Amino acid sequence: GTAEKVLRHHNVRSAVGWTVDSILNSPQEREQIWKEHDALAVDMESKAMAEVCASRGIRMLSLRVLSDTPSDPLRIPGNILFDVQRQRTPMLRLFGYLARHPAAVAELIRFSGRIARIRRGLTDAIVNVIEAT
Hints:
The protein has about 130 residues and is mostly helical.
């Protein structure tokens, strides 16, 4: 429909996704899901949102940004980067991890820059979809 036409101009593509109940901390866990389910995306939010929308007869479009993929996995454990219950980065845990794994500093800088660029692109795509509908 309209959203698909608009999103073609934003380097958006359809992909198989998989939803999990908690952050996957190891590259091995993510790789297992990617292989087992042929999923390019793994997230924690889409399933719950889809169930709520379906129960109310609401159409849903899920736009996901992939922070790591099978070909470019993030090598810092998810629970180091984000505390799901508190909805923020646990800074002491992150600094402790970086002190023990100094090579991860470069990975974190690269990840942060990539997320900032992707966030701008996703925001533009969402605004364009809303304006077109």
